[in-house]
């Protein structure tokens, strides 16, 4: 998102840059909330404006989509890992 802001700096309005900066800050703060379920929801919801920033920087449609797929993959693999750990841990 930071690189998208650098690209948008030359051709965008102030509100587009402010929205991008706010989104970048939220994306940086979101990992700190991942110990709670709300953090996962916030991270998932933030994927939508990340892709939507493609209105300002066209390449963000592609990059935002890739990051959304990586987010989904991390959730799926993480759940599978947690399930495997639960099976191996003696109770």
Summarize the structure.
This protein has helices at 2-8, 14-29, 37-52, 59-88. It has 91 residues and is mainly alpha-helical.
What does this structure look like?
- The chain is an all-alpha fold.
- The protein has one domain (2-88).
- The chain is 76% helix and 0% strand.
- 9% of the residues are buried.
- The parts where pLDDT drops under 50 for at least 5 residues are none
**Overall geometry:** elongated
Measured by DSSP, the beta-strand proportion falls in under 5%
Order of helices and strands: HHHH
* Biggest beta sheet summary: none
Q: What is the CA–CA distance across the termini? A: 43 Å
Number of separate structural domains: 1
Number of helices: 4
Protein structure class: mainly alpha
Mean pLDDT over the full residue set: 92
Any idea what the radius of gyration is?
Answer: 16 Å
Counting DSSP E segments of at least 2 residues, the number of strands comes to 0
How much helix is in the residues?
over 70%
């Amino acid at each position: 998102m930071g690189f998208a802001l650098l690209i948008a700096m030359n051709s965008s309005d102030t509100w587009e840059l402010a929205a991008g900066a706010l989104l970048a800050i939220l994306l940086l703060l979101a990992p700190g909330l991942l110990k709670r379920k709300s953090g996962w929801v916030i991270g998932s919801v933030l994927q939508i404006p990340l892709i939507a920033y493609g209105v300002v920087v066209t390449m963000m449609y592609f990059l935002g989509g890739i990051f959304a797929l990586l987010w989904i993959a991390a959730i799926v693999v993480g759940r599978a890992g947690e399930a495997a750990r639960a099976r191996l841990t003696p109770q």
